[in-house]
Design brief:
By secondary structure, this protein is mainly alpha-helical. It contains ten helices and no strands. About 70% of the residues lie in helices and about 0% in strands. α1 runs antiparallel to α2 and α5 packs across α9.
Length: about 170
């Protein structure tokens, strides 16, 4: 016997919320695995479709929330917060293009050979650090941009490993 959309949309919302909530909290505290991040990103797209199915199957109840001024105000609050997030008014980076992203952008554009000089490490150390960080096929004439295509968070992580002081350097 086939079940209606109404029968399965709520359990999907519960499961989707659990997935999104747990992976989101893990990402917030930087405790996530790469798979958690992928599940959160792709799961978010699926979750939107599930939410749409839930709204369609419970449309009569959904409409009633727009008649209560308090509920409408709460919905409006989230719409305002979302709208503000597109304005970029809380950008902590200076208007002149400085800040951590600019530094990472410039460092990751350098050939690895030059990056080793900036980090005060020899080329063999840099190659080992990059390999340990998961970067394969390291070429000293290539930049991190060429080796790690478009993954800003990954560039932060790898540059952090490169510029981290070794125990020998601390002494």
């Amino acid at each position: 016997m086939a079940k209606s959309l109404r029968d399965w949309s709520t359990p999907l919302i519960i499961g989707g919320f659990t997935l999104m909530g747990v992976t989101g909290v893990l990402m917030f505290f930087h405790l996530h695995t790469p798979l958690n991040k992928v599940l959160h990103e792709w799961g978010g797209l699926v979750f939107v479709m599930i939410a749409f199915a839930h709204i369609v199957s419970h449309f009569r109840s959904f409409r009633l929330h727009f008649r209560d001024p308090v509920k409408l105000g709460l919905i409006g609050l989230f719409v305002v917060v979302l709208s503000l997030s597109f304005l970029n008014i809380f950008n902590p980076e200076p208007a002149d293009g400085g800040g951590p992203r600019a530094i990472v952008s410039r460092l990751s554009a350098l050939p690895v050979r030059n990056l080793s000089l900036a980090a005060g490490k020899n080329e063999a150390e840099i190659t080992r650090i990059l390999n340990d960080a998961g970067v394969r096929s390291v070429r000293l004439d290539q930049s991190l941009d060429e080796m790690i295509r478009g993954q800003q968070g990954e560039k932060f992580r790898v540059l952090g490993a490169i510029f981290q002081e070794s125990e020998a350097e601390k002494e």
